[in-house]
Amino acid sequence: MVVLGSFLPWVYTSLGSLSGVRGAGLWTFYAAMLGLAGALVPSRRVAAVQGALMAVPALVLPVWQVLHVLGLVGTGGWLPGPGLLMVFAGGVVAAGASRALWRGAPVPA
């Protein structure tokens, strides 16, 4: 979700859309690659740490983007795009999976 959402539009305006890759989406894409590497590691603890490291920018950067745009123009003239929401949702999923891996709980397939 984070990889795909990083390339989709993050903000819609009356002048057009702003892609995530032109800003913070590039950093979330890099973090998603770290999360993908963590999914391939056989150690549960290492995978949990890498998933948590992926979840931090995937949760923080979309929230920062919304607060930044709200501070600039308020609530008029823009809408959050699907990329912004997908990256945030992917961060929530990664945080939950990291927590389950760290605790040793079985992760549903």
Automatic annotation (TrEMBL):
Keywords: Membrane, Transmembrane, Transmembrane helix. The chain crosses the membrane at residues 20-41, 53-78, 84-102. It comes from the Bacteria. This is Uncharacterized protein. It comes from Nocardioides deserti.
